[in-house]
Amino acid sequence: MNNAKIVALVLFSGGQDSTTCLAQACKEHANQVLALGFYYGQRHKIELEQAQKVADLAGVPFKVIDLNFISQLTPNALTSKEIRIEHNPGELPSTFVPGRNLFFLSVAGVIARQVGAEHIYTGVCQTDYSGYPDCRQDFIESAEKTINLAMETTIKIHTPLMWLTKAETVLKMRDLGKLEWYSETHTCYEGLRPACGTCPACTLRLKGFHNAGINDPLIYR
Known about the structure:
alpha/beta; five-stranded parallel β-sheet; single chain
């Protein structure tokens, strides 16, 4: 990686969606991209390990910000192994981390201002959003306005997957020519590698590949 100016940040967990966003950002901004990961007290650090591997494939720098305080604010299944991963009808999933995307975008906005970047990419999706309210279009529009008002910036938040199904996301990655990056991604809520193939995240991912008619390069148990 050379010392090219950073013009775009990608909120990067090392998962399928954020990796697709990374591919999109790299296409649009070449080597001027920074992948930004967060440690927020999540149950498994393997996602950050895999994120580094994907960033290496993309040839972009990967920076991890410590936001461990998020895990101290409210109990949820992504930051506590004591809470069961489940989604009951009429309720938010137990994997919902209140405020997570709000914190992520706010921090990314500060870093973008510091490095002079004008673009932030995030893989939130309202079509297959799993019931998370901070993955909706109206939240993103509100966050963008708030961030720019707070810092007198003109940062644009890009959500290339907002209205795509998981199958359409797979097809988008195929069209970007980066399907092989998916082999290093991490989706499994159980933190397993090979992936469990049965948790809600794995099930949604596998359904997407099936509907797209493409084999998932990730290894499952």
